[in-house]
Each structure stands twice: as C-alpha cells, then as structure tokens.
Amino acid sequence: MERAAVFLAGIAPQARQVLEYLLRSPGRTVHCTELVDEVLGGQGAGDPARRVAGVLSGMSKERAHSGRRYPFHWWEAPEGGTGATYAVRPSVAAVFLAARLTDD
Fold this sequence. Notes:
The longest helix is centred in the C-terminal third of the chain and has 14 residues, at about 90-104. The chain is mainly α. The chain is built from six helices and three strands. Helix 1 (about 1-10) packs across helix 6 and helix 3 (about 30-40) crosses helix 4 (about 50-55). The protein has a three-stranded antiparallel β-sheet. About 55% of the residues lie in helices and about 10% in strands. The mean pLDDT is about 85. The protein has one domain: Arc Repressor Mutant, subunit A, CATH 1.10.10. Pfam families: DUF6416 (PF19980). InterPro entries: DUF6416 (IPR046301).
C-alpha cells in the first residue's frame, strides 16, 4: 500500500482522474472513448486513444519511483477496431483505494 501511495502522490491530476475512474469499476474493461467522455472533458479535438495514452504515459516517472508496475492493464483494439481498452484488477483497485484513503 505504501508504494501505491507514493505512486498516487506523484501523478498528474488528469492521470489521477483517469486512474480513479478505473478504480471505481474494478475488473471492467473501459474503452478509451468512455474515458475521454467521462473524465477528460469529451471528444473535442484529437484521437481519443492518443489522448488517453498521452495522459497515462505521464505515469512512467511515478511507476519507476514507486517500484510498482502500472496499476492498470490495456489492450489494443482488435484488427479493424479503434482505440484501446483499459482495466484494473479488483485486488489492485483495493490496494489503491486504501492508499488513497490514507492519503486524503
């Protein structure tokens, strides 16, 4: 839990919002367009897959600093599809939610 708290403390606000959205639905795959619509302020300009990937790529420094892996999994779109999907395991969500409660 300590490493999860370190990870959360350093990530940018938008990355934290995306992660918290995923944490509230552990085990469910979430498409990048849902993350853009629900967390990042709607479609607007740009490819939703690139917007989400750009936000989440900012976590690399905190990932290395905390000694943790990324707390989510992601899958590319199947051939002919668009955008990636993301998910957080229930066990990982529990650790991060507990770390967030001790952080608040």
